[in-house]
Structure formats: C-alpha cells, structure tokens
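To assess whether ligand presence alters the predicted conformation, the chain was also submitted together with 3-methyl-2-oxobutanoic acid. Input:
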Amino acid sequence: MAPNEVIDKQKWIDKKADGKRITMLTAYDAAFTSLLSQVDGLDMILVGDSLGMVIQGHDTTRAVSMDAMLYHTEIVARSGRGIPVIGDMPYHSFDTADEALMNATRLMEAGASAVKIEGNKPEVVIRLVEDGIPVMGHLGLLPQTAENFKVQGKDNEAADTIFKDALELEAQGAFAVVLECVPRSLAQKITGALKIPSIGIGAGPDCDGQVLVLHDMLGLTQGYSPKFVKRFAQLDSAVIEAVQSYSDEVKSGSFPTDPYSYH
Ligand code: KIV
C-alpha cells in the first residue's frame, strides 16, 4: 500500500479560506480505522495519546510511551486507505528539539502524515517544520501537563496567553491547532485571527473543524463524560447485549446450530 501523503499545509489553509469545515476523529486500531476510512468526508484520523485511557486502561495520557505511539500509528497508517493520519507526540517525547526531531521522524516513518504537539514549544515546532515535518498544535486543556481538567482560558490573562500561543504556533509554521476545552468566545476569536484552521474539542461551533475521541462519540466509553461529548451511538449497550446473547446461547446449546457447522 502507498504511504500516506505528508500533510500539505496550504491545502488546509485553503479549506479554511473556502469555509470548508474539517472533521477529525481518533483511531488506534485496524478495525475502526478501516470503518472510518469508508466515511465520506472524514478529513483526518488522529492517533491520540488518549489511547492511554481508551486502549491501555490508564487514567492519564502521561503513561503512554513512544513505542506505544509508534505501534498504533503504524497500524492506523496501514489500515487507513490514504486518509491523513496525525501521530500524537507523547509526554516527554519532545522535551528538547533534538528529541522531538528524532521521535517525530520515527512517527513519520511509521506512516504519519503529520505530528501533534501539546503546548507552545517554539524551538520544537520550528525545528520540525524546518525539517519538513508538519505540526498540528494543541492549546487550551493540555492533558499531558494539566493540573486540573477544567475549562481553560476563562479569565482574561489565561485567555490572552492561549490567544498569543495560537498566533505564535501559526508563525512557527504549524498547519492547524487543536483547541481543547476553552470558552466558545475565545475559540471564535482565535479562529478569526488565524489563517490556519482551528480544530475544536469542547471549544464550541465556531472552530474550523472538530475532533472527538472515537470511543466517546460511539458511546463505548462508560463512566464520566465531559459536557462536550455527544454520543452519536450507544455501542456500549449494543456490545453488552450481543455478548450476553452469545454467552447465553453457548450455555444453553442453541449456538452453534447446524448452519454454523461444517459437513
Ligand atoms: O489524544 C487525543 O485523543 C487528543 C484529542 C483529544 C485532541 O489529543
């Protein structure tokens, strides 16, 4: 299979200029990636370090290793039928520009079309962009370093910092920026000030695009769910019901019947 194309920054700037909204979802495995790539109009897949919670069962993204990100990025890139795949740079993988370049290069070699980096790290972003690695920024709530998981940028000072960081990321050469858990008015202001697209998660409808964690929007995640998560399906109950039927039928002897047997 042909490798995924490296992100062409101008294409995403043009999409924004043309008022075309951008859709992104996370994926971590072949089965879901294959389904996602059959959806008309889904623009990008993010191999997020949210896989720490969704796949690995941790309660933080901080536990996710570079090796885990490479493993899942490679799987998604192989299964995605050409849809751009963004590889998340995990905690401590971009502490210095040298480390960032080494790790981002590995993600690109694993099949990523671009990498995503949390926070405003000028020396890192400039170095990667100079080396031809497209960077998606990520501002607002930064799960790798957050002390609390609340809406960010509510007071003027915090909002000004996020706004300034967004402008700086654009100047450093980022091709897009994720805005996580910020007030709608701040996301709108940032979106209006940038040429590159903003991709919101819990940032309201005025961003140029949206991203959600796939398992959350499919209703596979149980327990606490943030306000911004819309469950577009209830797959948790569908899975439990199907597995309950399987277990009941095996135990009662009603599965497998003759049509499911070889002769
Ligand atoms: O890791 C992730 O899935 C993310 C999204 C929530 C933006 O960073």
